[in-house]
Amino acid sequence: MPHRIVLSQSQRELFSALPTEPAELAKYYTFSDADLVMIRKRRESKNRIGFAVQLCLMRYPGRRLQANEQLPDKMIAFIAEQLAIHPIAFSGYALREETRREHFLLLAKQLQVESFGTAHYRNMTRWLIPIAVENPNSDFLVGALLNELRIRRILHPVIPVIERMVAAAKRNADRRIFNLIYKQLQFQHRVGLDEWLNTDTKQQSRLSWIRQPVGRPCPANILVILEKLDAIKALSLPGSIVKHLPVSRKEQLAREGSRIAAHNLRMISDAPRRFSILTVYLLEHSRALVDEAITMHDRIVGGLIKKSKRKYSEQLQKDTRLIKQAINTLATLGEVLVESRQKENDVWGAIDQAFSWAELQARFKEAEDLASPCKLNPLRFADNQYPQMRRYTPELLEHFDFQAAKGGQEVLDAITLLRDMNRSGKRKLPDDAPMSFITAQWYSLVFQDNEPDKHFYELCALSELRNHLRSGDIYVAGSRQYQDFDGYLISKDTYGEMKRKGDLPVAVVTDFSRYMSERTSLLKSELDKVDSLVRQGKLDDVTIKNNSFHVKPHKAVDVPEEAKALIREIYQAMPKIKITDLLVEVDDITHFTDQFTHLRTGLPAEDKQSLLAVILSDAINLGLTRMAQASRGATFKQLSWTSDWYVRDDSYSRALAELINFHHDTDLVNSWGDGSTSSSDGQNFPVGHVARRMGDVNPKYGSHSGVNVYTHISDQYSPFYTGLIHSTMRDATYVLDGLLYHGCNLNIKEHYTDTAGFTDHVFGLCHLLGFRFAPRIRDIGDLVLYPPDKADNWPHLKTILGERIKPRKVDKQWDEILRLTSSIRLGTVTASLITRKLASYPRQNKLALALREFGRIERTLFILEWMQKPELRARVQAGLNKGEARNNLARAVFFNRLGEIRDKSFENQSYRVSGLNLVVAAIILWNTIHLEEAIAEVKKRKAIPDKYLSYLSPLGWDHISLTGDYIWILKS
Known about the structure:
Blueprint: H1 9-16, H2 22-29, H3 33-39, H4 45-59, H5 73-83, H6 97-111, H7 118-134, H8 138-151, H9 159-183, H10 187-197, H11 206-211, H12 219-233, H13 240-243, H14 247-259, H15 262-266, H16 271-318, H17 320-343, H18 347-354, H19 357-370, H20 386-390, H21 393-399, E1 402-404, H22 409-424, H23 440-446, H24 454-471, E2 474-476, H25 492-501, H26 512-536, E3 542-545, E4 548-551, H27 561-572, E5 577-578, H28 579-590, H29 608-619, H30 624-630, H31 636-646, H32 649-664, E6 677-686, E7 696-697, E8 705-714, E9 721-726, H33 735-740, E10 750-752, H34 760-769, E11 772-773, H35 807-812, H36 814-826, H37 831-840, H38 846-868, H39 870-893, H40 906-939, H41 946-949, E12 960-961
Parallel strand pairs: 5-12, 6-10, 10-11
Antiparallel strand pairs: 1-2, 3-4, 6-8, 7-8, 8-9
Helix pairs in contact: 4-5, 4-6, 7-8, 7-9, 8-9, 9-16, 12-16, 12-21, 14-16, 16-24, 17-18, 17-19, 22-24, 24-37, 26-38, 28-40, 29-30, 29-31, 29-40, 32-40, 34-38, 39-40
């Protein structure tokens, strides 16, 4: 049986790679005087350089020189330069095996290192097992093992041996985890869990039932979620099982439990494994169900408010006649009064002549009614939805343990009162009912008469519960998304220890006084510079007028006609190909399908045809049923089985990283960029009729429901990260996710977005995490700049300067800002989740305000640079253009079902998005490789200026057949 896959090919190459960058070469391979004395004792040049190379390799990365090994030229040149020897001398080293062996033994004794042997294999594998229990990620374990071997002065073996050790450690770690969980389950737990897997011919298993997507937000579906939660609760599974389980293990087992079909799970004969998977999945799924219920409540309340406002607008339209009558009456009455006053006529007589008294009273009554606070409140129609809310809210409040942070106690008191009234059946609010939480928006509705209206009181409490859950002022026990804010972050003890050791993973000086001094000094300097340029009239692109400024939009550089003709000629030389053959060819080159490993065994798929068909069905939005019909030799059962066992979010992510890494190493990409900058943008896809209630309507994209695909693309056209988000969610929430969690070899330093991608919080967090953030902001001239001192210090900028930066506000929360940033970098919480929480916080939250203040400094510095540097504006525009061009290719690939996403579950929708991005990346890679060949062919006939290659793009698809029967011709 083949070994479990531990590393991908690109990871293997990464761990095997030797230093080539000047800084790394200097760090690891600079010789001391003692080293040089020892090296110069060798008699011939070839032996001196060979001895030196062995010395370097044994120190770092900590291994011996292999026979006939080809080492990087830059490394040999760096070593040779220190020895005043020509690098070519190394080619003659160790023609005699004995010489290399003698040098090795001498160095091993001198450096006090050991050769790797069988005893080391066993001991180090045992050492690795507890680490694998905590973190089963293969690349992490390989890195930890190599580092420990260096610490112990043991020369590490070849990478395949390291992989076998890691695989053995992972198997033993799995066994420990399974036994640990199994021992905590009593007999009744095991019986109950097995019943969840049992099926009969008429009814599905409880496991299949609980996995089914609930559907659109509505009261009935919230009740279904609560029923599912009750079913899991009835098992009485020990919560301690997941409480002390490492996070990565919980995610791994929960993922297996979500994918393995009930009948396949029932067939696992290893009881500890079977029960561990099912137990952890159900406990983790219960948390997901809590989140789903709260999110559904959020969307129902949001829908209720929208409906009320829409009906209010409709009512205003209907009341137009009455409003006009009231205005006309008032105008006529005013004329009568003015004329009577001027002519000193009898006022009452004049009024009687102009109006009948009954008519005037009616108009007054109508005007009074129209002007009542309740009538003018857009939420007054919310009461129409009260019966719908009552269908589920008593159960919702009863099921969940709501708890309050500092700012949410008043709302929680109201929720507690409503829960007590539901239990007792009371309908009248008590005299001491909490009232301080009622906002101005709801006040006129709650207090219409002498006593509070119970319906509107309850609606207000439920609405405020939604708002406070969003912000984190109220949280839910057992939730993942709505937990206590402090629970998202690393513990204060851990943070304190890391700070004491200087190990905080942040990109700024951690001493606040020093940091703020340096930053404000830079801000003053930039303000001085721009103020001087404005005074001298040297900012030609910037106009300051009134309280705003205008920056001329960047004018795109026209592509020379010669370059256009050349691009057409190059693309005409590209071969025609079917999308199936393209994917097979790319897989032959990169082996990206090896990343789709079996959920249980960890082995890659043997049936590559079915796997590629599943991936393509996701990418082109065809679905498995129709793909089975269009793909010769593949049945729906084969495709479904392959999808269940091999296709997951993490598989798609690893496969994408393989393509991106390979693409990054091709030669042509250097004509487009060095891979250090990127951009991100959202692309809206409509949802079909079946899934329309799962999407949101964003007026920016029209009146139909949809979802957004948010994609990060490098300056080399590599779409290195993608995610599915609600279309009403601001893009800025997800900017950092792509920069932090892409898993590729790209080293992104600068990132671009459009207006939707920027907030002050994102500016601050990007700077703290070491990314330079450069958004293209629409109406940038309407933004104010925040100076560190009085605006009078910069007279020519005074009209566009706002209030001064408040360092004290940041200083008081500095440790919390660093703790938050460290938590994001370490993966304790995702950047998108915490960014969403911060954006939802009420204005009085000190951490959110401090981070916003911090971000204002970075935003001001950026705007000042934007005003000064046309090249920055050009760079940002070029980066965003690449993302928009990639979206066109994605739209062309995702053509089936009218380009609509019709899956009901978020999980299946995300597979569509991941498959689409993977195939787009494969097309880009294939195009890049064949563009290089086409360029070489054209160069045989004519010269091609290097500058013209930057105008090329690997995003063309006219030469690729995306439709027809999908026939797979695989190499044996």
